[in-house]
Design a protein that fits this description.
Layout: H1 11-16, H2 19-30, H3 36-47, H4 51-67, E1 71-74, E2 78-81, H5 91-94, H6 106-142, H7 149-177
Antiparallel strand pairs: 1-2
Keywords: DNA-directed RNA polymerase, Nucleotidyltransferase, Transcription, Transferase
Subunit structure: RNAP is composed of a core of 2 alpha, a beta and a beta' subunits. The core is associated with a delta subunit and one of several sigma factors.
GO molecular function, one term: DNA-directed RNA polymerase activity
Length: 178
């Protein structure tokens, strides 16, 4: 990835650059998380996009932010760069522990042989249970899911309502800034 110095670019160069690269450059420069709407506003002002142009690119840009591995959304602070956030160390929980082996007495070895015979019998039972489970799972996968047209229309309406609400919030925030 090339370093993008958007402050030295012309409006034409900025318009040719992808929104995702502009967002990365803006966040890199700010060194702080930003809400999605604020990021859109900064890009809009920087490039000189109209409301319609931003609206037409909004869905793809949001998808790109979610898919691009460089960005991370934090509920408290908004969008930031993944490299800013610490990853919890879970090495202690997943690392195998090293056990020391002691020499075993002959009586202990005999007990182990009995235990192995018991385990062999349990493995056979497990294999039978597993085969039954796999057969049931295959039967479940064969079932088709049927959607009514009403269900699909309801989902479409909910999505449309969400977009309308987001647009109204964006417009309200924009009016507040003016």
């Amino acid at each position: 990835m090339h370093e993008l110095n958007f402050r030295e670019m012309t409006k034409e160069q900025l318009a040719e650059e992808s929104l995702i690269n502009l967002a990365y450059a803006i966040l890199t420069e700010k060194r702080a998380s930003v809400s999605f709407n604020d990021l859109l506003t900064i890009i809009k002002e920087l490039v000189g996009y109209s409301d319609e142009e931003i609206k037409s690119r909004l869905l793809q840009f949001y998808t790109d932010m979610n898919v691009d591995g460089r960005f991370l959304f934090n509920q408290e602070t908004g969008w930031g760069l993944r490299e800013w956030f610490k990853v919890e160390q879970i090495e202690e929980e997943t690392a195998p522990s090293v056990k020391t082996h002691k020499k075993k007495s002959k009586a202990a070895l005999d007990d182990e042989d009995d235990l192995e015979e018991d385990l062999d019998e349990e493995e056979i039972d497990f294999d039978e249970d597993y085969e039954e489970f796999v057969e049931e799972e295959i039967d479940e996968e064969k079932e088709d899911i049927d959607f009514d047209e009403e269900d699909i229309e309801d989902i479409d309406e909910e999505i449309d309502e969400d977009f309308i609400e987001d647009d109204e919030e964006f417009e309200e925030e924009e009016e507040e800034e003016v």
